[in-house]
Amino acid sequence: MNTNPVLVMPGTVPAPRGGILHDLHARHDGVREVLARIDAAARGLDLPAVSPRLVEGGEVAPGRGPDLQYVEIFAVSIATHRALVGTGVEPGALVGQSVGELWALAAAGYISVEDTVRLAVARSRALTRQDWQGTMLAVGVDGRRAEHLAGLFGHPDLVLACENAPHQSVLSGPTALTADIERVAAAAGWPTNRLDVPHPTHSPALARSARELRAGAPRVPYGGGRVRVCSPWLGRDVADDDPVELMAGALTARVRILDTIRELHASGADVFVECGERAVVAKMIQASVPGVRCTVPLAERDAPAVLAGLTTGTPSRNGAHPGAPVVVRPEPTVAVPTPATDPPAAVRPPSPAAVATPAARPEPVEPAPAPSAPAPSAPAPSAPALSGRAPSAGARDYDAVLAQLRDLYGGYLGYPPDLLGEDDSLEADLGVESLKQVALLGQVADLFNLPDLRSNASLLGFGSLRRIADAVVAGGAVGEAA
């Protein structure tokens, strides 16, 4: 097996938390140098420097646009890369998910850090100007079934956008169709989750933005990369490819990271390191290649120790061997169902009277402020019966509710319930990915007869058992759960 790890750059993820790079900045000259370069490039585009918030801490400024979010995501990825290289890690290859391909090109030395910032912001501004009213919807099935689901609606802009893992795909299409897609998926028993992204991409609808980038994005010097870069949308390694064309072409193309990861593994890669704040692509990798070793250094309590361990073989502080699945959890015992069959014959798309499916794509309207992302909304899949019962009419006791939640989530994670902290982040600390959070929250809603919990977006992504228990207690008295 190849001992040189594959470094993976995430695409559009939530804005990094303040202070995420504090330790790496203090310990690595390469991190300080690259952040100073990013800050200078950002200021040249009339954006604030990113290092003060990422190093010293601070909340995301209300009302800020998406340009800075992309620059911050890049800063986290390239800083992690610089720290890895600074500790002696020699990457065997680099892979980027969606816009993360730009980060991978910069890490490989194919384009400069400054030009990466310029291209990322040019991409963001082109997408903002088009202001496509689209949604990206994760569906808990393989790509073939997700593509069949999209085909039921016959809309030219509704397509399979990403094949992430054997049981996770992403559709990209008009927001007006999303609720109907969710209804059809629910009838087939497939969980769904709306992705909170500033710009939906990977749809033919983005042809206008792609044309604008090809015509007006800054032309930058490129080539001479030091490390292999694998492109999930091209389906091959990056060679003498114009980065502007790579960026523009990806906007309307399907991303097949599942195929890329499997091909890398087949060629000998068995260690993958995600250069991001939390396990996003790493979860896709473990689902795609069971037994592969993944780590996400910034998700560890002592990121510098994990970075050092990748080269020395020293166990990390939590006792896990570097390269082992430190953050990425194994498949749960209470799993989201992954049907082996296609949708039942009775499942049909909405009638033309209910949903318009125009033959031609309408011209986009003039730019407008981007709407906030729709709240995730998905029916919970069926699950094994739970032993606990909701209290009968009367005020709910917080401790009793928390105990039931610990039993439910402990069963999912395979942990003793008492080890689950009230304030542990479901995603960052416990490794519960977004689709599974939707499914489990649906089970909580059923257990306590509180259907409104299903659409409570504040309990997803940054949820904790305390926040869910508070929501259940605040839900009022209802009858016993079934």
Keywords:
482 residues, globular, 3 domains, Non-ribosomal Peptide Synthetase Peptidyl Carrier Protein, Chain A, Alpha-Beta Plaits, Malonyl-Coenzyme A Acyl Carrier Protein, domain 2
Question: What would you say this structure looks like, in words?
Answer:
This protein has 482 residues and is of the alpha/beta class. The chain has three domains: 6-129 and 206-312, Malonyl-Coenzyme A Acyl Carrier Protein, domain 2, CATH 3.40.366; 133-198, Alpha-Beta Plaits, CATH 3.30.70.250; 398-474, ACP-like (Non-ribosomal Peptide Synthetase Peptidyl Carrier Protein, Chain A, Orthogonal Bundle). The chain is 38% helix and 9% strand. It has 16 helices and ten strands. The chain has helices at 22-27, 29-43, 51-56, 66-86, 100-107, 113-130, 143-151, 175-187, 207-216, 243-251, 257-266, 281-288, 303-312, 398-413, 434-447, 465-474; strands at 6-9, 93-96, 134-139, 159-165, 168-174, 192-194, 229-231, 236-237, 271-274, 293-295. The strands form two sheets. A six-stranded mixed β-sheet has the order 8-7-2-1-9-10, sandwiched between helices. Strand 4 (159-165) and strand 5 (168-174) form a beta hairpin. The longest helix is centred in the first third of the chain and has 21 residues, at 66-86. The chain is globular, with a radius of gyration of 22 Å. Mean pLDDT is 81; it is low at 314-342, 344-394 and 476-482.
Residue share in β-strands: 5-15%
Strand order of the largest sheet: 8-7-2-1-9-10
Rg on CA atoms, Å: 22 Å
The top-level CATH class of the largest domain is Alpha Beta
Number of domains: 3
Biggest sheet features: 6 strands, mixed
From the N-terminal CA to the C-terminal CA, the straight-line distance is 51 Å
Count of DSSP strands: 10
The CATH homologous superfamily name of the largest domain equals: Malonyl-Coenzyme A Acyl Carrier Protein, domain 2
**Helix percentage range:** 25-40%
Overall geometry: globular
CATH topology annotation of the largest domain: Malonyl-Coenzyme A Acyl Carrier Protein, domain 2
Which ranges are low-confidence, i.e. pLDDT below 50, for 5 or more consecutive residues? 314-342, 344-394, 476-482
The name of the CATH architecture of the largest domain is 3-Layer(aba) Sandwich
* Mean pLDDT over the residues: 81
